[in-house]
């Protein structure tokens, strides 16, 4: 059997944790996440491993070039542009020679019995099997698998931002594939999502596709909360204890060079990294993971937290239910609960990618918080909103004659209604309606229903010059949109790439954007993804101004802004 590890991906909810290292090297109980993945594969005698990557490849390759991984054969595929998970598999299909290929997300830890999965896969004569589990009803999920009583997949549904997720099985990040079916897509060079596009195409051709519902332990790290919980799960399961050092007491492990004062109290499960010092009167209540070279001064306190390397706890400091980043210093007699403490201030674009609805209460930066950075963030928010309001008012006044003439031409050309509305998703997935001049013919029986794809003569002209989108300026004034941002889309338009969807919904949609002014209108889906992600991660007032200044020249060259 072969294994493909999907170590690329956007993982936007983890972006603040992966600034130094790729997600595969995030430490879980003081060991890189990839160690757990490879240990799992080794357990099932899977040695032929292919990594699919898109960035930070050198760091991961260097880490895997160790003697303890010599029993594996590693190959690396670096994605030249976003291809989607299935698109990447199509690219590497010549490497996949075994009839059973196990596909794993690179942020996954599992104890699932692979032999049972293979038996089920063969029994059902399946060509592609998705491992799923049953989530808590109230837990929101990015994707859901709807299947029949025999296990065959009926459909894959993306997250519905407008309503609560129904009780369904969800994919766990494990798949079993017969690579022969990849030849069907050999000529396809676009973006190909593994579940919604790939599965739909297989079902259309009546190729057997099944889901395998597993109750065995499988966890993926998608959010900061997932990351903290996985650390605790690993401690409770006593995995990889051979890397934790010597055990003393009840479920307490200490690495080389650890010094613990006799008066300190440690209640497991707790892992102490190498050369950590625990002073007199310190209390540590597990589950807790403490990295290398950490120092706990007298009477400091830690409870149910994850602490990275080189962290210092000053005298009588108190931390509970938190994640403490590398090199952070907890000041004397300070108290923190449910915090994420990081050693580097955020850039503006990184703030867009902070987790939404995170139960961990806040993000704490090193003291003192740079005043200049705080002012820069606040200036951007005020300046962007001011630019939106002033710009929208100016453009509405400037194009007032165009408004009147466009409405009149639509009315004379095809009657009422003059405007049409479409449902879109805005900031954080909040639905709203955008209004445009109607460009399509209407159903005579239902005046508000447009006939798909059938443009009026006036509509073709308005569409060509983007005049139909002028009413979107009211959405800007209302605050649902901005002058600059990713174009507003409905959920169905973003279902093929959940990572891209989650990134672009971190900012307000815009009338124009980076993707709209780039290239020569020969855009592919992967270029669309790349431009949207770049804008969100590098958002600034100057970038907005640059895009606005380029937009008129784009229009004058006769290019549509869509």
Q: What is the mean predicted local confidence, pLDDT?
A: 83
Number of helices: 15
Q: End-to-end distance, in Å? A: 45 Å
CATH topology of the largest domain: Spore Coat Polysaccharide Biosynthesis Protein SpsA, Chain A
Rg over C-alpha atoms, rounded to the nearest angstrom:
27 Å
Main sheet attributes: strand count, strand direction, barrel closure:
8 strands, mixed
Top CATH class of the largest domain? Alpha Beta
- Tell me what the CATH architecture of the largest domain is: Alpha-Beta Complex
Characterise this structure.
- The chain folds into three domains: about 1-220, Spore Coat Polysaccharide Biosynthesis Protein SpsA, Chain A; about 245-365, Hexapeptide repeat proteins (UDP N-Acetylglucosamine Acyltransferase, domain 1, 3 Solenoid); about 380-555, no CATH class.
- It has an eight-stranded mixed beta sheet with strand order 14-15-18-21-24-27-30-31, covered by helices on one side. Strands 5-4-1-6-11-8-12 form a seven-stranded mixed beta sheet. A five-stranded parallel beta sheet has the order 16-19-22-25-28, with no helix packed on it.
- It is globular.
- About 40% of the residues are buried.
- Residues about 135-140 and about 160-165 have low confidence and may be disordered.
- It is of the alpha/beta class.
- Helix 9 runs antiparallel to helix 10 (about 455-465).
- The longest helix has 28 residues, at about 370-400.
- It contains 15 helices and 37 strands.
Record the SSE blueprint:
Layout: E1 2-6, E2 27-28, E3 31-32, H1 33-43, E4 48-53, H2 57-64, E5 73-78, H3 85-91, E6 101-105, E7 108-110, H4 114-123, E8 128-133, E9 143-147, E10 153-158, E11 170-177, H5 194-204, E12 209-213, E13 218-220, H6 224-237, E14 246-247, E15 252-254, E16 259-260, E17 265-267, E18 270-272, E19 277-278, E20 283-285, E21 288-290, E22 295-296, E23 301-303, E24 306-307, E25 312-313, E26 318-320, E27 323-324, E28 329-330, E29 335-337, E30 339-341, H7 348-352, E31 362-364, H8 371-398, H9 400-414, E32 419-425, E33 431-437, E34 440-442, E35 450-455, H10 457-464, H11 472-478, E36 482-484, H12 498-504, E37 510-512, H13 514-517, H14 525-537, H15 541-556
Parallel strand pairs: 1-4, 1-6, 4-5, 8-12, 15-18, 16-19, 17-20, 18-21, 19-22, 20-23, 21-24, 22-25, 23-26, 24-27, 25-28, 26-29, 27-30, 30-31, 36-37
Antiparallel strand pairs: 2-3, 6-11, 7-13, 8-11, 9-10, 14-15, 32-33, 34-35
């Amino acid at each position: 059997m072969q294994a493909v590890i999907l170590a690329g991906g956007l993982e936007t909810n983890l972006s603040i944790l992966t600034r130094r290292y790729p997600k595969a090297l995030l430490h879980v109980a003081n060991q890189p996440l990839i160690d757990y993945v490879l240990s799992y594969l080794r357990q099932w005698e899977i040695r032929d491993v292919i990594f699919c990557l898109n960035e930070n490849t050198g760091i991961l390759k260097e880490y895997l070039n160790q003697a303890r991984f010599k029993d594996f054969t590693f190959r690396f595929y670096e994605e030249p542009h976003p291809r989607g998970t299935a698109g990447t598999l199509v690219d590497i299909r010549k490497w996949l020679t075994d009839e059973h290929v196990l596909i794993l997300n690179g942020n996954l830890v599992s104890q699932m019995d692979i032999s049972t999965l293979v038996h089920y896969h063969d029994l059902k004569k399946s060509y592609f099997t998705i491992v799923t589990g049953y989530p808590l009803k109230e837990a929101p999920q990015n994707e859901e698998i709807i299947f029949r009583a025999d296990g065959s997949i009926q459909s894959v549904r993306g997250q519905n931002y407008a309503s609560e997720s129904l009780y369904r099985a969800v994919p766990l990040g494990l798949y079993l594939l017969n690579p022969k079916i990849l030849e069907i897509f050999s000529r396809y060079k676009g973006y190909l999502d593994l579940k919604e596009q790939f599965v739909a195409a297989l079902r259309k051709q009546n190729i057997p596709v099944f889901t395998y519902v597993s109750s065995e332990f499988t966890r993926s790290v998608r959010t900061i909360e997932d990351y903290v919980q996985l650390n605790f799960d690993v401690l409770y399961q006593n995995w990889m204890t051979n890397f934790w050092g010597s055990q003393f007491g009840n479920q307490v492990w200490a690495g080389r060079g650890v010094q613990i004062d006799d008066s300190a109290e440690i209640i497991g499960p707790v892992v102490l990294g190498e050369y950590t010092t625990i002073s007199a009167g310190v209390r540590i209540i597990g589950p807790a993971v403490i990295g290398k070279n950490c120092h706990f001064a007298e009477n400091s306190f830690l409870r149910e937290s994850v602490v990275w390397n080189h962290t210092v706890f000053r005298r009588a400091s108190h931390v509970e239910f938190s994640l403490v980043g590398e090199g952070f210093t907890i000041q004397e007699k300070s108290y923190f609960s449910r915090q994420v403490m990081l050693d580097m201030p955020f850039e503006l674009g990184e703030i867009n990618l902070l987790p939404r609805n995170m139960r961990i209460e806040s993000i704490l930066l090193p003291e003192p918080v740079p005043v200049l950075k705080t002012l820069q963030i606040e200036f951007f928010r005020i300046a962007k909103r001011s630019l939106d309001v002033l710009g929208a008012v100016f453009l509405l006044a400037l194009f007032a004659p165009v408004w009147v003439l466009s409405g009149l031409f639509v009315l004379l050309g095809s009657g009422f209604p003059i405007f049409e509305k479409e449902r879109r998703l805005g900031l954080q997935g909040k639905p709203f309606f955008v209004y445009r001049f109607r460009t399509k013919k209407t159903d005579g029986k239902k005046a508000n229903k447009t006939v798909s794809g059938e443009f009026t003569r006036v509509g073709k002209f308005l569409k060509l010059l983007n005049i139909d989108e002028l009413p979107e300026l009211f959405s800007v004034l209302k605050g649902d949109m901005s002058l600059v941002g990713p174009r507003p889309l409905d959920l169905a338009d973003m279902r093929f790439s959940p990572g891209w969807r989650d990134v672009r919904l971190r900012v307000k949609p815009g009338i124009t954007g980076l993707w709209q002014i780039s290239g020569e209108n020969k855009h592919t889906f992967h270029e669309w993804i790349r431009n949207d992600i770049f804008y969100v991660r590098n958002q600034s007032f100057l970038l907005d101004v640059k895009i606005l200044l380029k937009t008129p020249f784009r229009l004058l060259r006769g290019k549509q802004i869509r």
